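Notes to self after the Tuesday call (sharing in case useful).
The group wants a holo model before anyone commits to mutagenesis around the pocket. I volunteered. Ligand is zinc ion. Logging inputs and output together so the record is complete.
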Amino acid sequence: MRGTVLYGKEDVRFEDVPEPKIVQPTDAIIRISATCVCGSDLWSYRGINPLTGPTPMGHEYCGIVEEVGSAVTSVKKGQFVVGSFFASDNTCPHCCFGYQTSCQRKEFINRAQAPVLRVPLADGTLVPAPGTPPKEMIPHLLATSDVLGTGWFAADAAKVSPGMTVVVVGDGAVGLLAVLSAKQMGAERIIAMSRHETRQKLAREFGATDIVNERGDEGVARIQDMTKAIGADAVLECVGTQESMMQAIRSTRPGGHVSYVGVPHGVELDGEQLFFSNVHLHGGPAPVRRFLPQLINLVWTGKIHPGKVFDLTLPLEKVAEAYRAMHDRSAIKALLQP
Ligand SMILES: [Zn+2]
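Result:
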């Protein structure tokens, strides 16, 4: 079969790769219904994360189980399943505390931009949908695999609850779905920081009540102004740069929560500034597996439509075009169909 391999800066290829096979008795093989390009894939694509060699790509996926290993009990052939970007056993202490991305047996999934995928620890990793979804529901289910799960974690980690004022820093797909998540958790005021018209529109559709164009010092000043110089109860940092992180911390009220779900690149925090800010900080690789049953149910019952972040759909063999479109920000997020 053919799959996606990144060779270096802006050099992604769809080429012959080995057909996945059951390796461990706890594995499953799934036929991908849809996959997509992640914002985090772009760090490597842009040459910011150095590669050690040709690297298979893709960690967001949903599809139909084709085969299971002899030890797999909860996932069956023919089921439509969604999994997260880290395989996890869902039984170790970290998993039981709800941090499956820190699973003692975790394995990163990185071959999902392909027609067929091997998923390790299938019983712990994969969550079956209640049935086979109609075609139009697939993008929404795919979104739960990472981008919605990560936005949801941003809201969960920042303890968003009814009545709160929430700021979302970042208008990528994760930021937009962090808005949706904050709305679901009952936030009263949701301020999305975005300077792109199409993204602002989607943020409003997902529940943003206010849009702020400014960034950095000006962005902080606007939030202070809008909150009567108190700061927001919760700020969801969905970018991962020094500027976005400081903007988040400085926009939060003392005692408020900052979550951060964008992989930090070059972020350094000043201890003294952090000390006097009096904020809670919580972030990391989103334990999407914790939220999957709930998120799949919200999609299945038509309560949320997170797949709206996919504004470009391409056949899988045009994966290079998908990377390019996200790289130059002409697409928010690209869905790939095998
Ligand atoms: Zn575990």
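Two things stood out.
The chain has two domains: 2-146+287-337, 150-283.
The two ends are 11 Å apart (CA to CA).
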